[in-house]
Design goal:
By secondary structure, the chain is an alpha+beta fold. Helices cover 17% and strands 40% of the residues. Strand 20 and strand 21 form a beta hairpin.
Length: 390
Amino acid sequence: MPGLITDLCVAARLGARSAARRLRHELAPPPDSNAFADALQGLFEKAPRSLIAETRCLRLSAQQPPWVGTGIMLEAGDEVSYFAQGRVYANRALDIWLSPALQIWGRIGPAGEVFRGTRNCHSFKVNQAGELFFGNYFPNDWADRSGARKLDDEVYNKVSGEFRVVVVRWAESALAGLKQLRKEGDYQDYLAQEIARLEQGDTTPPGWNYLWHLGPAEIYQRGVSPTGDACIHCHTRADVGILQYPVELPLEPGTALSWSWCVSQLPSDLREDSVPSHDYLSIAVEFDNGRDITYYWSSSLAVDTGYDCPLPNWHAKEYHVVVRSGTADLKQWLRERRDLYADYERYMGTPPARIVRVWLIANSIFQRNAGHCDYADIVLHHRDRDIRVL
């Protein structure tokens, strides 16, 4: 089983890689958040008064627990954009850090529902009146949809870094305002990126939804396989997302999950059972006891290796099972089938009563490498009944 020695070995390899990149000047320096804030505020000052109702610039330390008020009071129907730059460092020596897109969440009022964007810029339409708040996410997790935390806020003392956040309350629509402001200029394509995101719309495959307390992403998109079958494309890089599909099915002996996938690139070339290298692509099944079993393709661990998730917030909730290993079969469509009842009994104990969801998981936040995978023909088998998920 993985443990302290595994973590130390992985950390040593990641530390050596980081040091080598630093010596070769390949590590990107931290962004200049002051230049970012000055440039965007300069653009907003050029805008016609009829375009922008209000702007605000904030400095948010990575060690600051949620929630921090912006002083911007919103009314239902207002449209708002925010732009953020900076990093929260989990480990500077290993070059492990998160972007504002993952770290900064918003809330309207003291009991509003938490939300975040998929990029370092985000626009939204207000559905309730109240002050706009921002809050740090990592290394905590949300206990409820109004932003209570699962862990004590002292965990924020373990990280470092800061963010600058520039907020705009538009006089009319965000998209129209961004397009007009873009004519005056841009800074590192922030305005162009947000215009593109708004025009692109939601890319979540129909019938699926992202796990709320991890937040939305642009990782998954509905597509077509080379044979013309429906599939879901997965592309992850320096982000994380769990896509969920609701199911109601008894878990009995012989209940199985089958799927086809084509994994083109793994997000880790190190063993994935350690926190700093826990980047992977998988398909999972959630049960009515709140636990899930997730099947993934490992870079190096042996097939049928199983272990509890090494992440503290997921330990004893998620169990990982290796179904493929190495790189020999990458870029090929492969068919898998797993007996869910037998696997639960073998790896996790007495099986629960029911299956409640199928998940697709992509995580690449630790090493920030790219991962590519396509999924198709996802089916749950129960007695003589097949439930097609995709």
